[in-house]
């Protein structure tokens, strides 16, 4: 069912729209978490560290695509909010063509450069082979990732956040079954986990496409919708690529952090990887809230509802802060006990690394609320380039802290790299919001 975000209580609309996205993001995390748990249990710590190291590269590649497709469909949401069905369909067709072209190019470039990238990241020899096999399969399956992310973004743009959730839940269960089959059954190692992820993501994308074909006539494209319009393409590129680069800038900082972390050895890297998976599950609420704000702000911008934009930002901020306090306490007090899910050797030592990381990030979630709510909200209004400066601040904060920590051999310093990045980016984005609301709209 689609939702019109331009009417009703902003708080209720935001909560109702965010909840399915949050649950969907959790299940999407199960893709990589299932990989991590099953690889750690059946293959070993070196393979676990390899999957963790590849997580940063996946974030770079797939984050770029997720940001790009979300940016392309901001235009779709604005046309939907304005009630212009024809322009909405044309934006969908244009987004599909642009996404297909970028998918082909990115697949070729990433696979050609991956060997060198892993060397740049100081990937230890005992995990290099597993890391290379895993990430190459992920790169080869980029088109499956784009299919789901684009179609899910289109459905969310017209106010439907539930159907992508349902399809993702089915695919998540399929991913677990395939992980067990490929890793425990066929002994394919980390590479088997990558095949399971790509196949499952492709299934969820196929289900989205089937649902749109059967149940959403408003998104049935006509022949004339496929004629590319130069102004429309420029508009989508002006929003989509900055959003994509925003994700990539964040990922580059994470890659720098991973390269510095690798100098501490595979045990520390395994502990960091396990802790990151736990933190990423909790932090999906912030990602979901940001996704909601992109749609909310895009629809209300299209409808010319400036005051409703202000109310939405206030509601989303308080929702995020309350969740930040509760989730932070949860992982600080109990997060370390989940370590047993990921490792089968050196449990006590790795649990110590996990506990340290979770305490560092658990006290720092409030700035992460501002990063997601205000970045995505500003992008939903239609500002693509401006939030990228916050991404640069985030890159600098994370990278500088990681390099200093590596110099002193400090694992604690590594754990505080992300919180410092959140503080810098979140503060800058809030200042941008105040400027935009006062001067630009």
UniProtKB/TrEMBL annotation:
Keyword Cell membrane attached: yes
GO MF annotations, alphabetized: antiporter activity; xenobiotic transmembrane transporter activity
UniProt subcellular location: Cell membrane
Main location: membrane
InterPro entries registered for this protein in UniProt: MATE_fam, MdtK-like, Membrane_Transporter-Flippase
Membrane topology: Multi-pass membrane protein
Superkingdom, natural source: Bacteria
Keywords tagged on the record: Cell membrane, Membrane, Transmembrane, Transmembrane helix, Transport
Transmembrane regions listed in the UniProt entry: 14-31, 43-65, 92-114, 134-158, 165-186, 192-213, 316-344, 356-374, 381-405, 411-436
Any one cellular-component term (Gene Ontology): plasma membrane
Entry-linked Pfam families: MatE
Listed name of the protein: MATE family efflux transporter
Species of the source: Merdimonas faecis
Organism ancestry: Bacteria, Bacillati, Bacillota, Clostridia, Lachnospirales
